Amino acid sequence: xxxxxxxxxxxxxxxxxxxxxxxxxxxxxxxxxxxxxxxxxxxxxxxxxxxxxxxxxxxxxxxxxxxxxxxxxxxxxxxxxxxxxxxxxxxxxxxxxxxxxxxxxxxxxxxxxxxxxxxxxxxxxxxxxxxxxxxxxxxxxxxxxxxxxxxxxxxxxxxxxxxxxxxxxxxxxxxxxxxxxxxxxxxxxxxxxxxxxxxxxxxxxxxxxxxxxxxxxxxxxxxxxxxxxxxxxxxxxxxxxxxxxxxxxxxxxxxxxxxxxxxxxxxxxxxxxxxxxxxxxxxxxxxxxxxxxxxxxxxxxxxxxxxxxxxxxxxxxxxxxxxxxxxxxxxxxxxxxxxxxxxxxxxxxxxxxxxxxxxxxxxx
Length: 364
Ligand SMILES: Nc1nc2c(ncn2[C@@H]2O[C@H](COP(=O)(O)OP(=O)(O)O)[C@@H](O)[C@H]2O)c(=O)[nH]1
Ligand SMILES: [Mg+2]
Ligand SMILES: [Zn+2]
Fold this sequence. Notes:
Blueprint: E1 32-33, E2 38-41, E3 46-52, E4 62-70, E5 73-78, E6 81-93, E7 106-112, E8 120-126, E9 132-136, E10 144-149, E11 153-159, H1 167-179, E12 183-189, H2 196-202, H3 204-209, E13 214-216, H4 225-232, E14 236-240, H5 247-255, E15 267-270, E16 273-276, E17 280-283, E18 289-292, H6 337-343, H7 349-363
Parallel strand pairs: 3-6, 6-8, 11-12, 11-14, 12-13, 14-18
Antiparallel strand pairs: 1-2, 2-3, 4-5, 4-7, 5-6, 7-8, 9-10, 15-16, 17-18
The structure holds guanosine-5'-diphosphate, magnesium ion and zinc ion.
Residues 189-190, 192-193, 218-220, 243-249, 262-263, 265, 295 line the site of guanosine-5'-diphosphate.
């Protein structure tokens, strides 16, 4: 993966957030790193200096993991406690991603004892991320936005109906998963509303050709939940997909607890505290974590060149080496083995449609 360099020599250029749709308002909670290594939280205009590398050894850091964020507060789980943390004036970062902090991050913090008896923390260091789900920011702010970090897998959740699953979005998710080093699996929820066999046939390319685990569930009728829970047990997995497909309902059903309210994406609580709608981690009783995220209507891909898109369509793997031109984009070129395979239906024509749409969007 390409690394974005932090150029400390240039004048501060703070990337501004533009107006988002309602679903995107949670993004403003992300601290945004500028090209000079400053971050700015738009809400309160505070800035944090970022230094690349480890914090000085003499700092007495305690380590933990960000489980949720609300306002400026990052909820860090450390041993058995959840500690409310704010970023320190200077944060040492071991990664160079645009988002300084994200839910899922491993952080080092200092405990603050202000005499009230309530333990708070100041985040001093952010560890390198081993995986992430990222998307391209919307509008003027076109940087990378890390939705969640340091999980093993992504469960792409869509529903059989209400809303109908979106294969174009699904194909984008698969690319984002590979870019972020996340093992993908797919869940089609609300299966009681449709004919399961028809959907299984429609999605055969994913389960049979691409060998991606495909789950069919109904939270309403308790179908397929055990199988899904078994597949997710002992792993840490982010659930992502459009809103209203049943992500929060599935997490409740799997954990067997009413961990969070469903049917809304705007407000959560953490022990009575206001938690804005953003990613949130839940420990599974049998080990591992599930991360709930707000619905994404679209997923702008980050860190991919249009010419490389075909390499992420693994059902094309057997064909593109046979194209006449090594630089073939599989669109207008003669003797294109990919196009021929599409015509012969050896490649799912719908996957090819996704490919064309994604290349086009990356060229914009
Ligand atoms: N018919 C049907 N509705 C469901 C099912 N699972 C969840 N829902 C409903 O779908 C709506 C959205 O669920 P929610 O979990 O909030 O979706 P999220 O936005 O993806 O987190 C709620 O009204 C749920 O009760 C299901 O299996 N079948
Ligand atoms: Mg939800
Ligand atoms: Zn070609």
